[in-house]
Design a protein that fits this description.
Two copies of one chain form a homodimer.
Chain A (H helix, E strand, L loop, with lengths): L17 H7 L11 E3 L4 H11 L3 E5 L5 E6 H8 L15 E2 L12 H11 L3 E8 L2 E9 H15 L2
Parallel strand pairs in A: 1-2
Antiparallel strand pairs in A: 2-3, 3-4, 5-6
Helix pairs in contact in A: 2-3
């Protein structure tokens, strides 16, 4: 038999640089649960939902559960300054509408997602899956998830 | 003369693991400009300031420019839902007040700051310097700064 040269099982975990580890980090492993509302929900109810679920961004879907828009804490604050009657304004009037929504897929790297967030100056992206007639919302990834991932890099290395 | 053993200048940058690099990352190198308001500013004007400066958090100071509180987009949204007369409510009524404010110093590591943010579930910290009678606000560090730092780890390594 040919002598086995090269790698042997040492009983230790393989040494891997943090940089290599980062490239392997995919969105699927660092995601949060998405909070989804329908287009005709009022701005008032959207704000309640935001506080109830304690998130910074709500994803808006149509009757077929396909992504039509995104509404952020900032959008909701802008709409609510010094105004009453928020229960009469449907959320689709103030949301950022498709195709202007930045999204990602669960197999995307965390690095590409972090880049998207920095480039578009947003704090949260919907994680979607393509369907025949649009995009279904499967998850949510935020700068909080990125911060947690950043911390996990050090914890994994016991620095 | 004694022969020089050990390290020689190779003309290359020293090879350093990303994990080592992370421990060296201090807040001073990843901070943003703080946006500061006074305690008697109205909630209405605070919201305007928030949009004007495009930040998520405002730091509140007293007459001596010392930190007395913090007010976030979330606090401002909670106060403004379905209400008028926001110009009559001073911001000190709704802010998170010292000593309940989480802060950091410019020589703190980015890792310790990321941990603080995750533990206290906040997106932004004031960077302060101790004065005789309190804390002066010198900067701001946010999850956006952490996300930028996360990206810089990969860019430095050309992965």
């Amino acid at each position: 038999a040919r002598p086995r040269v090269g790698y042997f099982y040492s009983g230790k975990k393989p040494i891997k640089s943090v940089a290599d580890g980062m490239v392997d980090m995919i969105v699927a492993n660092y995601q949060s649960r998405p909070v989804v509302i329908t287009e005709n929900l009022s701005v008032y109810d959207a704000i309640c939902q935001l506080f109830l679920e304690d998130v910074g961004t709500l994803f808006v879907v149509d009757q077929q559960s396909l992504l039509t828009g995104v509404v952020s804490r900032k959008d909701l604050l802008r709409t609510s300054i010094g105004r009453t009657g928020l229960e009469k304004i449907p959320v689709h009037v103030i949301m950022t509408r498709m195709p202007n929504v930045t999204y990602c897929k669960k197999e995307d790297t965390l690095i590409s997602v972090a880049k998207k967030m920095m480039d578009s100056q947003i704090d949260s992206l919907p994680i979607v899956q393509e369907r025949e007639h649009g995009l279904e919302v499967m998850g949510r990834v935020t700068k909080t998830n990125i911060t947690a991932a950043f911390l996990s890099l050090v914890e994994d290395q016991d620095v």
